[in-house]
Specification:
Helix content is 56%, strand content 17%. With 479 residues, it is an alpha+beta fold. The protein has two domains: 12-164, PAS domain (Beta-Lactamase, 2-Layer Sandwich), CATH 3.30.450; 262-468, Heat Shock Protein 90 (2-Layer Sandwich), CATH 3.30.565.10. 22% of the residues are buried. Bound molecules: adenosine-5'-diphosphate (ADP). Residues 370, 374-375, 378, 402, 404-407, 415, 420-423, 427, 432-438, 461 line the site of adenosine-5'-diphosphate.
Length: 479
């Protein structure tokens, strides 16, 4: 029941019906009560006029008894009959001298209204519960000098006929109201359908989206301004979803390509051994070493892929601690030094101040190692790699610069993309997967940091990293 009331269509329907029914009921009650009181008023005036004429005629003699001749009595009877009532004539001693019902003749009639009428006051009253109109009227002697009351006329008239008259009007009205109500229901049902239609259309389109139909065109629906803005947002979401789908497809095809390359090499190498007799020991050794290198390469790609996937889906929560950044960089340099020496590259460490920051040490170490290793890999013999540390009140800055081969301008924007390599052959030689910078950037973003690359082809490259000293806690409890 509650669920039904939550439906917008039902609410519009109820609202439309109520806004029709309430005025109809009010108007009905008002019309009926006005009609009823108008009828009573009319009847009162009518009876009072006639009664006054009779009272006047009965004032011809000094006493009411004397005035009440046969023909007057007949008039009284006729009149009482005509108005569906009873007429009493009471003399100035409160004795009933005529009763059209003949029931209370000669009885004494004592009531406030009679006393009041004997002193010259009119009295009239409508008792709706008893369907009765009552009049008490004084009869004045016509010929006396001073106004003298000779008696009282009491008239009670039945008004039950009124009920029938009112109910026939009420029935007529109810019939009209019923027709109006039926029309109202039909209009309300149609209008509520029209109003809710765009919302239902949107909901259907979104359902189709949920079913996996990502090619649904959301912009085509004709609807309200408010829904339009919801749809625009949904469309942006769908576009994003499509991009994601596309990039995922691209990613999968890149991954298979990358994984296949070392496999192909292994196969070619193995095939070269197959079917050949008497291979010299040296050559045999050489091919096996190459195969081993390719296996190594394959496992590096898989390692990089795994760490990228782990970073991407957030399954690896951040493990934040306060770390001395100077020590942290010196440690990293110490690990890379043997490779650098092998390549005859000088490693320079430069620190402008002591810095402590809240970081995920293993993760940031992976990112920084990658930057420094790249600077060594894409260098020239005799070149240098300089790592410098600086900080202000909110951030620390890490600069890794080299005087190596540099990156062409048009490639600079792409180096953070997955699998992007400027020179595929050189990257392959050095065991690169094209994932290092993408991973580094993700890690730095997870620290709410930024990374920028500047380079001049043939002259060298500088990567600048900026990371907040205090880690920003994510809402939701993950750090
Ligand atoms: P890779 O595993 O190939 O090194 P990265 O994502 O680490 O992948 O780097 C992407 C590409 O950016 C590299 O292939 C290389 O062409 C270029 N690159 C990265 N660092 C440097 C650098 N210090 N000097 C010149 N080129 C660089």
């Amino acid at each position: 029941m509650m669920k039904l009331f939550k439906s917008l269509r039902i609410r519009i329907l109820i609202f439309a019906l109520l806004s029709g029914i309430i005025p109809i009921v009010i108007i009905h009650l008002l019309v009926i009560s006005t009609y009823e009181s108008r009828l009573i008023e009319q009847r009162e005036i009518d009876i009072l006029q006639r009664l006054s004429v009779i009272a006047q005629q009965l004032g011809e003699q000094e006493s009411l008894t004397a005035s009440l001749t046969e023909d007057k009595i007949e008039t009284l009877n006729w009149y009482a009959n005509a108005y569906g009532g009873r007429l009493l004539a009471v003399d100035d001693n409160c004795r009933i001298i005529h009763d059209t019902y003949l029931m209370d003749l000669n009885r004494i009639c004592i009531s406030d209204a009679v006393f009041s009428a004997l002193s010259g006051n009119n009295y009239q009253n409508y008792r709706s519960s008893e369907d009765l109109l009552e009049f008490v009227l004084p009869v004045y002697a016509e010929n006396s000098e001073e106004p003298t009351v000779t008696g009282v006329l009491i008239m009670s008239s039945d008004t039950s006929w009124l009920k029938g008259s009112v109910s026939s009007v009420s029935t007529g009205m109810l019939l009209a109201e019923g027709i109006i109500l039926i029309l109202l229901v039909l209009v309300a049902v149609y209008v509520s359908y029209l109003l809710v239609r765009p919302i239902n259309a949107v909901s259907m389109e979104i359902d189709r989206l949920n079913e996996g139909n990502i090619n649904v065109e959301l912009g085509d629906l004709e609807s309200y301004k408010e829904i339009d803005s919801i749809m625009k947002n949904a469309e942006r979401m769908v576009d994003h979803y499509r991009d994601l789908e596309e990039s995922q497809e691209l990613f999968v095809s890149n991954v298979s390509h990358e994984l296949r390359t070392p496999m192909t090499s292994i196969r070619v190498l193995a095939d070269s051994l197959k079917g050949q007799d008497n291979i010299p020991e040296a050559m045999y050794q050489e091919i096996l070493t190459d195969i081993s290198d390719e296996v190594e390469r394959e496992s590096t790609i898989i390692d990089d892929l795994l760490s990228m996937v782990r970073l991407g889906n957030g399954s690896d929560s951040m493990n934040i601690s306060s770390v001395n950044i100077n020590e942290f960089i010196l440690d990293t340099l110490r690990r890379i030094r043997p490779i650098a020496e092998e390549q005859k590259i000088e490693l320079i460490y430069e620190s402008f101040r002591q810095v402590t920051a809240e970081i995920d040490e293993p993760k940031l170490s992976q990112a920084v190692t990658n930057l420094i290793e790249n600077a060594v890999k894409y260098n020239k013999p005799g070149g240098f790699v300089k790592v410098s540390i600086d900080a202000d009140h909110a951030y620390f800055y890490l600069k890794v610069s080299d005087n190596g081969i540099g990156i062409p301008h048009d490639a600079l924007d792409h180096v953070f993309e997955r699998f992007y390599r400027v020179d595929k052959a050189r990257s392959r030689e050095t065991g690169g997967t094209g994932l290092g910078l993408s991973i580094a950037r993700t890690i730095i973003l997870q620290h709410y940091g930024v990374i920028k690359a500047e380079s001049e082809e043939g002259e060298g490259t500088t990567f600048t990293v900026r990371i907040p000293l205090k880690h920003i806690m994510e809402t939701g409890g993950r750090s």
